[in-house]
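Email to the structure team, subject: Glycosyltransferase model.

Hi all, the expression group asked for a predicted structure before they design truncation constructs. Nothing fancy, just the tokens so they can compare against earlier work. One-line instruction: predict Glycosyltransferase, return tokens.
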Amino acid sequence: MEGEEEGLQLVLIPWPVMGHIQIVEFAKLILTRRSLFPPGKILSVTVLLMKLPDYIDTVSSSFADLLSASSSAGAATNRLNFFHLPPTNPSPEWSSKTRGYFIHNLVLSQRSNVANFLQSRKATIAGLVVDMLCTTMIDAAEELGLPSYVFFTSPASFLGAMLHCQTLHDEKNQDVAELRNAESEVSIPSFAKPVPPEVLPLVLVDKHMWLDRFLHYARDYRKAKGIIINTFIELEPHAINSLYGSQSIPPIYPVGPILNQGPSLNSHEGASEILKWLDDQPSSSVVLVCFGSQGSLNEDQVRELATGLEKSGTRFLWSLRRQSPKEKRASFPSEYTRYEEVLPEGFLDRTAKTGKVVGWVPQLEVLSHPAVGGFVSHCGWNSVLESLWCGVPIATWPLHAEQQMNAFELARELGLAAEITLSYYERSEDGAVVAAGEIERGIREVMMESEVRKKVKEMKEKSRMSVVEGGSSYLSFKKLIHHMMSNVSQ
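Reply from the structure team: attached below.
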């Protein structure tokens, strides 16, 4: 009996980009917290990997290879295994639209491969955990009688917004896209304050994105046995409480912050050079400017940012990456070969003693460095959690996905961020540019001693307390494990 129980496995399916890889860190938590399992019931974890083609994103595809390579030697002892799903052939139509559209279709193309994997190991599978954007796999599991859970990599506030918009559409026959043009602020139960229409994310109010993809994701969330959220109660009390107790919403489990501490893509000379440069800077004197693995700015905006940085007089570390051309919108940002081709003339010479322009950065390592005192960020949720974990305040500059909503929650609801902008969009059709003066003001604000900095320091301690034994996320994780094990026949 004991051997049979130890042979059970949990199958995890991440969305194949860096920003969603926290599901692998979640897997490691399952394997390290044996004390939370009932006696004799231990799970192994298998992560099913889908690789993006290198021409779309070399970073994510390289990371997938690193994950499987790093686990191969110790897989038998640490019970964490990676399985590469067979590659599928993208059609030219996938590449003609957005990154999200490309990856959505890649996930759909893997549904039969996932079903075959689950069927072949059905007797040993205790459950399936799917990324918030891989919910098509829930149906594959249901057909085999396997329980599914959703791993939600965005905040609880956005989960509430998605479910609210789905209710408006399905039960009240409301055109959600109309919210974008609302004349007044929009009431959403997961937000304590009314939300300005201009910060509603395109994934909710763009008719095609909503009807083709995100409406279906929201419907699928309600089919799950539970929703695991990478957040913690002390950070989002209102949003989390708004989700509790609803009969139409599965149990939610806030288990964060879960940070990406896996194998590093940055163990090359560039990373060590960055950290060495930081070693030479005064404490809390450097602002990190970084827009994540998917974020980039057009050339006009890059020059305006450079001007604002220079005028602020602040020491800076700038992760500057090239935006993919319009005809290759599905591709991720790439590296510049020469920064001089996009930056104002003489900028690098004038800022040589106070600033450093680089490509990809080891973000968590940089935020952990004592020289870093502020963070100009796109407000991707992983970056938000990392900044709070390290006690580094953010100046908000959202780009896409739910980031405008994240920026609003951080700055206006929680008082945990300074504002540069709340409503910028990476590929804005009106060509809007954030002016250098606004950038300068935001950078100065985030670097000063303020109520925001004080609150961020307090949230740093709360974030760390939440995951230790007895903390809110630790206890939520324990409830989740017990719920998962209750699905297994006694």
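The domain at 269-463 is CATH 3.40.50.2000 (Rossmann fold). The mean pLDDT is 89. Ping us if the truncation boundaries need rechecking.
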